[in-house]
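Q: Sequence in, structure out?
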Amino acid sequence: MHGAVVDIVSTLSTAGYLFIVSAGLTLIFGAVRVINLAHGSFYMYGAFLLTTIVGLSSGTKFWLAVPVCALALAALGALVEVTVMRRLYEREHLTQLLATFGLLLIFGDLALHLWGTGARTVAPPVPFHGRFTLAGATVPAYDIVVIGVAALVGAGLWLLLTRSMFGWRIRAAVSDPETLACAGVNTKLLMTMVFALGAGLAGLAGAIVSPQSSVAPGIDQAIIVSAFIVTVIGGLGSILGSALGALLIGLAETLGTRYVPDWASTVIYVVLIVVLVARPSGLLGAPER
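A: Exactly. Output:
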């Protein structure tokens, strides 16, 4: 029983941060149909920026730094969209991949100049240091923060996409952007806002997960692989699919680490293959026309 509780919390924590970063990725793809490899850079910058603001302290500064990181990366995402991405919307996916891969390398090199090659750590906020007991099992206290933030992000995105005019316009842009433009909607501004939101979510994920892991150059490439696996499993363009994909990958990583540690890194690819064999468009994805 205790082991099951630990596994559940670990699964939800891993799924939580994967969902946040993958939701931003799938939101961008769903609205603007761009496969953005530079999404991992926004995640890495969010993590590095939080370590810069907070350092090794762990007070109220942490809770102030997290939204600052998300907003800063949203602003950077808007800048990238205006200067680079909007020139790629009508190009082939291969061109988009090459361009965003170039951005990934540029941002990675810039991060080396800004933060160096060493790894950084940041302490969790004081109330969430150490571990606590849940149903007789001892689990990391900070996992609750990650799970809670992911739940808030999921609820916020659901409300945004289903209960707001902005969400209606995003859904209209996905299905019929020409008609939306003819209706007088500034689609260029809409795409900039969507891209900024996706980048902000990536920055939020990087900031939130930084107390759980070492922040170092290279995490941009590691997270983009995991995020794409989650997004493809869930179905490109589906936020709910991203949540399901994150849960599957979180469960696969947790059980793989516990029962087959030597093959833990392979388990997630097995899950990806099984899902794509059964449903090539992903769990909730629509087949591309």
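The first strand starts at residue 131 and ends at 134.
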